[in-house]
Amino acid sequence: MKLYEFQGKRIFREYGIPVPRSSLITKAGETSEVKPPAVLKAQVLIGGRGKAGGVKMWNNEADLGPLCRDLLAMNIRGEAVRAVLVEERAEIVQELYMSITFRGSTATPVLMVSASGGMDIEKVAHETPEKIVTTTLNSLTGPSDYQVRYIAKRTGYGNARDLGKFVAALWAAFKGTDATLVEINPLAVTKNGLVALDSKVVLDNKAAYRHKELFARLDDEQRVLAGDAAEGYAEHTITYVPLDGTVGLISDGAGTGMLTLDLIKDAGGKAANFCEMGGFTSPQVIYDALTEVLQNPSIKSLLVVLIGGFNRMDEMAEGILKYREDHGLPVPAVIRMCGTLEDAGKEAMKKGGIPTHDGLLEAVKTAVALAEGE
Amino acid sequence: MAILINRDTQVLVCAITGRSGQLQTKVMLDYGTKVVAGVTPGKGGQSVEGVPVYDFVSEACAEHRIDAAISFVPGAFSRDSCLEVFDAGIKFLVLTPEGIPDHDVVDIVNYARSKDARVLGPGTAGIIAPGKCKVGAHPARMFKEGRAGVVSKSGALSYEVGKTLTEAGIGQSTVLAIGGGPVWGFTQRDAVELFQQDDETGVIVLLGEIGGSMEEEAADFISKHVTKPVVSLIVGRAAPAGKSLGHAGAIIEGSRGTAASKIEALERAGVKTAKTPQELAELIKQVRGC
């Protein structure tokens, strides 16, 4: 779950990471506990807010209403602004960048720090990557003192003690909330020490079960602010992505689903959707996948591509036949079935009067031809 | 030798009494895999398909030599169970569950590394050395013994390609799936490295997909260290941009992670790329001259 800035900062505050004093405004006309001079920041999940004009300076008490009205009327790259964060203005000496995330291929946390923080960090990453000090961490021990001292030396930010405290707090927040990304840009150097002026936090939905209250609260807030666009955090077995073609597609693996998408295109057809059930399925999962895919009125044929490993073909047949019994099949179905317990699955399908295919290419061509009405 | 497993590999099944554990134990035994023990806390003393069940991994290891473990322990309980496996000295773990929190996966992999052990997965279909052993879900009849070493992210895609190669008369030394990410214990590059060293592997087959940069990292390794022929199939050419297709990392963002950019990186490393499994089989026949 990707968090709003104010949500990320609330987590930062709980973990002892210094952030500016703030209040949140959701309607023009609301008053703010924080007084000017302050910064007004549109709360959106998408990046590039500053460049889109979503950040304004608030200098005179009387301007709060009009400034918030302007911000709350904005739409930043497709995202409506529904809240404004009012923050005390910090006296910035220097802008740093700091983040912790995972590098997937080594399964290690990485800490990145740069003395060139601010709006152009992506340009820095691209053009002068040596200005970003990347440190691989051991997840079981967290950052070590020597690593912090090295970062302090390499970035030129000399106060290793201050930096160490900050890194330790950010690591605790990263680990303690099951975050997959905690990013602070800019991380301001002020005369009172380091202050997080922005937050970008992504939490791992797979870990929601051990942070029930936190996830529920964040999700409630997101539903108010993002409405239908809120992503939620329930783990879905089924991945469903609508497309604009006529062949309804269901697969029991992401890789074979993508391969089938390619083969449909090569055969001159167009898929109506991508739908993948994951490797561990059940009769109910394919029943649900059929329900999802077949609700699309543009579908002219249905292509089910099954090549089971952990996934059992007897159960797939059970789910498909149950769906047909309950709802019927509105379009011709092409079922490709092989893998674990395939003999039992094929036998059940045969009894149910739905023939199965063994070859993928042949099944794709048949489904495309049916969609074209041949 | 195949890579990671062989004819003599003795296997422990974690959560052997569960639904998947029971069925897959039977399927592995039918294939000839030496499944010698299972673990389910509280079920010690029972047996599954004739395989003795223990309460603790250490108890199983006291009675049997264990070379590899395969885990069906649900995501929320995986971390503890995996640490137990490595503490007992087991050096290779096939981690099948999806849905393990990323922080737990990273802890598991970092811990394994400190114990000189390897983790395949999570979310992996496992590994098969055709004709010798399988530790995972690869359907037996889609594979036959031979000299192609196949590595894939997706399990189902590794079955699909195995089936196509077998039907074309091309056998395999080892076929493995590394899982859909976003965090991996074992990468395509790692597999390529082992295939390069493996005497029984004559040609390396790299199956990739859109998203991330793992195929590019493998390509970099191939150009520097691999002398064996490598062929590749990258799926997701027809995928829409900005949509995650099932695997956490399978998403095209801007020009990054597209099939075209991966194919280009691989071809620059001297890898021949195919558009379909059938084309892949043809390419293998050409490079091997069989």
Q: Under CATH, the topology of the largest domain in chain A is which? A: D-amino Acid Aminotransferase, Chain A, domain 1
Count of alpha and pi helical runs of chain A: 11
Distance between the termini of chain B: 22 Å
**What is the residue-mean pLDDT of chain A, rounded to a whole number?**
94
- Beta-strand portion of chain A reads 25-35%
The counted number of beta strands of chain A is 18
In CATH, the architecture of the largest domain in chain B is 3-Layer(aba) Sandwich
Radius of gyration of chain B: 19 Å
Domain count of chain B: 2
Overall outline of chain A: elongated
Strand content of chain B: 15-25%
Q: Report on the biggest sheet of chain A.
A: 6 strands, antiparallel
Number of strands of chain B: 14
pLDDT < 50 stretches of chain A = none
The percent of residues in helical segments of chain B reads 25-40%
Concise summary:
By secondary structure, chain A is an alpha+beta fold. Chain A has eleven helices and 18 strands.
Q: What does this protein structure show overall?
A:
The complex is a heterodimer of chains A (374) and B (290). By secondary structure, chain A is of the alpha+beta class. Chain A folds into 3 domains: 21-88, Dna Ligase, domain 1; 94-227, ATP-grasp fold, B domain (D-amino Acid Aminotransferase, Chain A, domain 1, 2-Layer Sandwich); 239-371, Succinyl-CoA synthetase domains (Rossmann fold, 3-Layer(aba) Sandwich). Chain A contains 11 helices and 18 strands. Chain A has helices at 5-14, 64-72, 121-127, 145-155, 160-176, 212-226, 254-266, 283-294, 313-327, 342-351, 360-371, and strands at 22-25, 38-42, 55-58, 75-76, 79-80, 84-88, 94-103, 108-114, 132-136, 179-190, 193-196, 200-203, 239-242, 247-251, 273-276, 301-308, 333-339, 356-357. The two termini of chain A are 45 Å apart. Chain B is of the alpha/beta class. Chain B folds into 2 domains: 10-120, Rossmann fold (3-Layer(aba) Sandwich), CATH 3.40.50.720; 138-288, Succinyl-CoA synthetase domains (Rossmann fold), CATH 3.40.50.261. Helix content of chain B is 36%, strand content 23%. Chain B contains 9 helices and 14 strands. In chain B, the strands form 2 sheets. Chain B has a 7-stranded mixed sheet, sandwiched between helices. In chain B, helix 3 (75-87) runs parallel beside helix 4 (102-114), helix 5 (155-167) packs across helix 9 and helix 6 (188-197) runs parallel beside helix 7 (214-225). Chain B is globular. Classes of the chains: A alpha+beta (374), B alpha/beta (290).
